Hints:
Blueprint: H1 2-15, H2 25-41, H3 45-57
Amino acid sequence: MIQLSLIIVGFRMIDNVEKINWNESDEAFPAFLIILSISLTSSIAKPVLQSDLFHVCTL
């Protein structure tokens, strides 16, 4: 059952990828790193915490 919920959450997250302004590097780079880290860690919690660090580093 957990796998099904993660698949549903994944599809809902991917729907928002098209809303990212990929021409703005201060928005695109952290978004890319978060998407990549979610894929590599198979976790959502750790990359969400890392997203704050990614955002601060690109300011």
